Amino acid sequence: MTGVDSVRIEAAVAELLLAIGEDPSRPGLETTPRRFAEAYGEFFSGVGADPLAHLAEAIPLESEGGAPAQPVLLKGIAFRSMCEHHLLPFTGTASVAYLPGDHVVGLGKIPRVIDTLASRPQVQERLTEQIADAMEEGLAPRGVLVVLDAVHGCVTTRGVRQVGSSTVTVTGRGALAEPAARAELMALIAMGPVTGSGPSPDAGDA
Known about the structure:
The protein has helices spanning 6-19, 32-43, 109-118, 124-139, 153-156, 183-190, and strands at residues 59-60, 72-83, 89-99, 103-104, 121-122, 143-152, 167-174. It has 2 domains: 6-43, Orthogonal Bundle (GTP Cyclohydrolase I, Chain A, domain 1); 51-190, GTP Cyclohydrolase I, domain 2 (2-Layer Sandwich), CATH 3.30.1130.10. It has a 5-stranded mixed beta sheet with strand order 5-2-3-6-7. The chain starts with 5 loop residues before the first helix and ends in a 16-residue tail after the last helix. It has 206 residues and is α+β, with helices and mostly antiparallel strands. Helix 1 (6-19) packs across helix 2 and helix 3 packs across helix 4.
């Protein structure tokens, strides 16, 4: 488990179980600390990782007649992250659009960027900005648009327990910074997926 001290996590979980009045050695809980450490290794695998590494193999773009390239939109990208306030998960979908400059990237690289940034203690607002930052720095596009729609465990399972609510965050950069400029892309995102259940994380990596 790279970057995660599983021994410390297991000890902390055993102490937590004791703190709530449970017996961490009883059947049903005896392997919980180990399983918890394994899960946290996945949830926080993006800590210290560089999302720009996924954009390093950008493809030079040759536009016919020198005309600016048309927008690229990848929508319905499933993601999960952990809210840094309560360490409860939030899950949802991301849509990322960009206006290519001189380069494009394999479609499978964009979900990898999102997964790297989401696999950290996060808040949705910052995650949205970080995805846009990575796209902007890694590809130098003419514009970037990022939309996240997520359901938060800290809202659905505690406090007000609003099980039917989701949170939408939007950020735009460059030529897609203004709402009017991105209206067409927002309409396409709102239409939902055309077929199937969304792109494979490995799509376009060839």
